[in-house]
Description:
This protein is mostly helical and 249 residues long. The protein has 13 helices and 3 strands, in the order H-H-H-H-H-H-H-H-H-H-E-H-H-E-E-H.
Amino acid sequence: VFLNIRIGLFFMDHEIIKTNIDKAKEMLEEGGDWDRRNRLKVYEGLYAMSVRDLKKCANLFLDAISTFTSYELMDYVTFVQYTVHISILALDRSDLHKKVIKGSEILEVLHQIPQVNQYLFSLYNTQYAEFFQCLGKVEQELKEDRYMAPHYAFYVREMKIKAYAQLLESYRSLTLKYMAESFGVTEDYMDSELCRFIANGRLHAKIDKVGGIVITNRPDSKNAQYQTCIKQGDLLLNRVQKLSRVINI
Length: 249
């Protein structure tokens, strides 16, 4: 079964991979040792990464980090590198601290891959200019990666949004110049980036172009729930009215 999944991963045949992962799960439910269970987590995580299900991938990889034995797929250092790259994007700050920053198995290996160590801690320690440089190197690596190459542009875009949002969370407003200096880029570049992400609804902020100020407007969850409730109420009323017309006829 594992051989079939490897063949599926090689040719990126989704049907073979899904069928054999389901088959492996059924076999393990009937009875299987911990080694096979942990190997399946790595296989399933790798497939999740290749189809951009990064949250699932991060959870599966982190579960298998202390019991990794799937050397037929990759070596342990590469596995840790994948785990860190995916976890930085998929996990929120508190989970990242608990599962990655404080993870002894991960920290042990990070000494062998200083560029990944620098990438992880530059974002966590809010050293954004350094983080941007590291992200550029990660982008080049992902372009050549077998599983992440189709998703490198998505990954880089989401990491930029995460970094911008992390900085904006700390302030009610800040100057465009300060943001540009923090990330080590020009004001024009920062302006165009923020405009794009704000227009797409990915960042909750607005830009005062005259004053050169970025003002954050955090979403009010209660207000959003209220608006959703009104919309759903309107839909329900419309359906009830349509139904009453049908019954009357």
